[in-house]
């Protein structure tokens, strides 16, 4: 039997340049049925242009009701930005203009995530926090092979070296996952400026407030209080069963 549950989606976002950087190279989007965080590649020219280009391209989408087609349209838009950034790098005569991306698309009782790089999607369900995305990074490869521990990965000299990004290569392999949504699910999209300074236990505690605005503000506050060595961006999303036959969206934020 088909699940026809409708959900009301609420979201809030917060970004901060941090305490050590002169420029915020993160960008975010919170639009009906589509949420995004992009982190311009640190150390490369025009990282802020790269992350903004992703958000601007996705903000113009009018996604269909079918999840598979919504995924395809989101993927096509990101691949278009990949080519744009490759062209821009050639024009500017720099090696790379790139950005991570993590995007969450919701349709009906399901959602999908597309990502490249080390910006993450977390899910808090039944008070259990789960990292749904797998970092495309050098240290994650080492950790997956059992060569270093998760704690060692956090402090590894190459912890910022990512292996996949928008604009980094002519062919972009966007990883995708889909899952069914449940009442009360709390999702978190974030750049690495959050999880490098705030551990999973504290992330779970903050999300368990079930208040998107409070959680977004508090997560950024914690990241700054614990060092704030990078730009930090979070988008917090809550799904709750809605009355009626269609989805509704409550989001005070649009783009960053």
UniProtKB/TrEMBL annotation:
It holds the Pfam family PP2C_2. The keyword Glycosyltransferase does not apply. PROSITE patterns: PPM_2 (PS51746). Its EC number is 3.1.3.16. GO terms for molecular function: protein serine/threonine phosphatase activity. Residues 10-239 form the PPM-type phosphatase domain. It is an enzyme of class 3 (hydrolase). Keywords: Hydrolase. InterPro entries: PP2C, PPM-type-like_dom_sf, PPM-type_phosphatase-like_dom. SMART domains: PP2C_SIG, PP2Cc. It comes from the Bacteria. This is Phosphoprotein phosphatase.
């Amino acid at each position: 039997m088909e699940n026809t549950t409708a959900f009301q989606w609420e979201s809030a976002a917060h970004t901060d340049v941090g305490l050590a950087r002169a420029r915020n190279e993160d960008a975010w989007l919170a639009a009906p049925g589509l949420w995004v965080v992009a982190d311009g590649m640190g150390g490369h020219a025009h990282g802020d242009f790269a992350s903004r280009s992703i958000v601007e391209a996705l903000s113009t989408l009018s996604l269909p009701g079918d999840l598979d087609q919504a995924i395809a349209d989101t993927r096509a838009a990101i691949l278009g930005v990949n080519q744009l950034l490759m062209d821009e790098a050639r024009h500017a005569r720099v090696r790379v203009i790139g950005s991570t991306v993590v995007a969450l698309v919701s349709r009906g009782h399901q959602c999908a995530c597309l990502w490249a790089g080390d910006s993450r999607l977390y899910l808090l369900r039944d008070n259990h926090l789960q990292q749904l995305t797998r970092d495309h990074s050098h240290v994650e490869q080492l950790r997956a092979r059992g060569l270093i521990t998760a704690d060692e990965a956090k402090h590894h000299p190459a912890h910022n070296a990512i292996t996949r990004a928008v604009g980094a290569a002519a062919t972009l392999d966007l990883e995708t996952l889909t899952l069914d949504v449940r009442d009360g699910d709390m999702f978190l999209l974030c750049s690495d400026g959050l999880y490098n300074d705030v551990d999973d236990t504290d992330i779970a505690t903050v999300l368990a407030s079930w208040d998107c605005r409070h959680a977004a503000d508090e997560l950024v506050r914690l990241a700054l209080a614990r060092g704030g060595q990078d730009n930090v961006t979070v988008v917090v999303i809550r799904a709750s069963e809605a009355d009626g036959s269609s989805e509704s969206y409550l989001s005070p934020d649009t783009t960053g």
